[in-house]
Design a protein that fits this description.
By secondary structure, the protein is an alpha+beta fold. It is built from 2 helices and 11 strands. The chain has a 6-stranded antiparallel β-sheet, with no helix packed on it. A 5-stranded mixed β-sheet has the order 4-3-5-6-9, with no helix packed on it. β7 (64-66) and β8 form a beta hairpin. The chain is globular.
């Protein structure tokens, strides 16, 4: 079952995980959406659609980037793809990663967290030096 691991630009160290269970899963800034996410502007951020061949992301009015590339129409996404928008980011996983917070779950997603933090660091000012230190400390 697919998952989204979300972070906010306001609290990048705090992650939230959501199981993607519906055929169409909406991600937006209000509680009426399937997944509530932070964003600099309100409303629908994107929609995930489960197809026979996998998942597609459908952008809304927000500027969405998948693995650093801006998207303007629906595109197929793969496991470990990074989805970014102004005010937040998410990592999409198709395989199951335990949702528990035990030692096994922490070890299972450690490398994903390192990559996620590295990608976030590379987008801020002074990013290369900070990202290098972060990667070496991991």
């Amino acid at each position: 079952m697919a998952q989204l691991i979300l972070t906010s630009s306001k609290s990048p160290r705090r992650e939230r995980r959501f199981m993607v269970q519906k055929r169409m899963t909406t991600v937006g800034t209000e509680t009426s959406f399937d997944v509530e996410a932070s964003a600099d502007a309100g409303g629908l951020v994107f929609t995930l659609v489960r197809e026979a061949a996998g998942y597609e992301i459908v952008p809304s009015g927000h500027k969405i980037r998948v693995n650093g590339t801006a998207i303007h129409r629906s595109v197929r996404i793969e496991s470990c793809d990074r989805i970014e928008w102004s005010g937040g980011a998410a990592v999409f996983l198709e395989s199951e990663v335990p949702l528990s917070r035990g030692a096994d779950a922490d070890r299972a997603i450690h490398s994903l967290n390192v990559l996620h933090n590295l990608a976030s660091s590379l987008q801020s000012s002074g990013s290369v030096a900070m990202a290098l230190h972060q990667a070496l400390d991991a």
